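Database export, one record per block. Field names are fixed; values are copied verbatim from the stored entry.
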Amino acid sequence: MEGCVLAELPRRFARSAAALVLCLLAAGSSLAAPKHAELKYRSGCEPSELRGRLARPDSVDVSRACGNLYAPWGYRGSKAGLLAMRNFGRRHAGGQVASTLAARLLSGNTIDSAFKAMSRSAPCDAETGIPVYLIRFYVGNRSTFALLNFARGHALFFDGEEPLGMVVMGASADSLWSTLAQLMIDDPLLRAERPPAEPDSIVSRWMRTDEPPVLIEHHEPTYPPEALAAKVEGTVLVWVKVGDDGAVHDAYAEGYDEAMFAEFVPMLRDAALASVWQYRFKPARNNGKPVEIWIAIGVGFTLP
């Protein structure tokens, strides 16, 4: 299990939180549901799959990463342009460099839940930005991504919309920094010594508050015509960042690992996200003060 045991607590929390909000937003039953997609949460920790993916990479792309670094695998719909992670200065290398990077990332390091990597954002400035690098490993026709945040000392792994795990770079940070410096010879940050890592003070997106956020303005999602025509119904799990002002500051649809998701849920998630972005909350409070917090919301679609 490596470092995945701690992921079980937030997993149970996420299910109960999503179910609670779902009861408020999607009460009722369906008269006909030939195609139904169930809400399913990802633990974000897949050690055996990750090690298998990076066992023999064919090649690799390396670039600087910037923008929103939180949950880079998350599907954000029409808001992706404003909230997506960006990258620049891409360099390509062959299998030898790819294997070296993969070995230095995984050898001797414990794979833990991706949800413990809590980095927020990075400025897109080549000279004064923070040292965050995106590595794209190619294996056949599949890609696996690693987001190396030297400012925080961890590497986050994901594939498309699936979080795969996180490692603390630790003693391998210097050798990784050196390998990137040899590949990205014109990167100004890599010309200097590796800065010391400052680990995140928050190691999880789950936190306790004295008062949870309270939904005060709810907008029903518009049923997508293609989903109606295909008789698709189900629940989309949306993670929502509720700011200390009660507004939605970020939102993304959680991935599913069932085959049904690939076929049906994409019909529903844009509508779910569009609805959630219009929500308003009474903000969560801690020690008497409003605070920012992530919550899980299940947005239900039931055929009329």
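Remark 1: The CA atoms of residues 146 and 165 lie 9 Å apart.
Remark 2: The domain at 5-42+206-301 is CATH 3.30.2420.10 (TolA/TonB C-terminal domain).
End of record.
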